[in-house]
Amino acid sequence: MSDLVWIDGTLRPARDAGIDPADRGFLLGDGLFETMRVTNGTIPHRTRHFHRLCDSARILRFPTLDMTALAQGLDTVITANAIVNGSARLTLTRGIGPRGLMPPTKPRPTVLITTQPSPARQPGAARLHVSHQIRDGASPLSRLKTLNYLPGILARMEAADIGADDGLLCNAAGRIASASAASLIVLTPEGLVTPALTEGAMAGISRACLVESGLVREGHIEPDFPQVSAAWIVNALTLRPVGQIGGRSLSLIPAGTERLRACVHPS
Question: Residue 13: enclosing H or E segment and its boundaries?
Fold first, then answer.
């Protein structure tokens, strides 16, 4: 994390940023976040991120967001930390509240914005593992970036236990929904496919760009990956080819990787 953060309208050193012990995001995971790519000092898909954040806040019944203030906060932190290429994360909680599950009648959300420069080296081809964790495609929460990421955390830990880089989560029907924090794309004889949102996939910004462009279509992906010859995992920050799923090796297609990257991560 960079040295300066934006918290509730104030730029301050990260070491001095405090969260109230009664904050519902800390106590109950009652919050949302957006991780955004920064390229040449700007956020390429900021409008899409803001639309998703507003839609998610409405579903969780948060107060109406001041998007002008959030945009100012993002610009302020990116400039203050001299982030040219990297990422910005906007974390929003319902704020402090009384003990118990019911929120206050007039919540005052907590806003935290942090930044991170790009890593010195990009990771190579990923090794994936099909996790025991489940994503519930019937729940609207499966499409939101909430502060509860425990299934993804457990899937990533399972993968690390066997020397893999990431875990793939299935839905209740046993089909692939997503990676722990990324969308999955596979190459089949019919073209590029990603799980549908109803399968439990996260409503990813990069995923939406690929589907809208016509490069990728929505469909079902079975966990034995029949007729799949290549795959990628993608989110706002990375597009990574997959070299192996379980004990099965997949083809690496550099031209395909660059075509997908040009759509989701414009320079």
Answer: strand 10-13
Domain stop point among 117, 142, 176: 117
Contact in structure between 144 and 56 (CB atoms under 8 Å): yes
- Same domain? For 85 and 175 the reply is no
Share of the chain above pLDDT 90, in %: 91
pLDDT digits (tens, 9 = 90+) for 156-211: 999 999 999 999 999 999 999 999 999 999 999 999 999 999 999 999 999 999 99
Q: Which domain holds residue 32?
A: 4-117
Last residue of a domain, one of 90, 117, 144: 117
- List, edge to edge, every strand of the sheet that includes 4-7: 10-13, 4-7, 110-117, 86-93, 31-38
Q: How confident is the model at residue 266 (pLDDT cuts 50, 70, 90)?
A: confident
Q: Could you please report the per-residue DSSP string of 121-188? A: S---SEEEEEEEEE--TTSGGGGS-BS--HHHHHHHHHHHHTT-SEEEEE-TTS-EEEESSSEEEEEE
The CA–CA distances, whole Å, from 6 to 1, 83, 90, 150, 163 equal 12, 14, 9, 26, 37
Mean of the pLDDT values across residues 81-95?
A: 97
Q: Residue 77: give its domain's CATH number.
A: 3.30.470.10
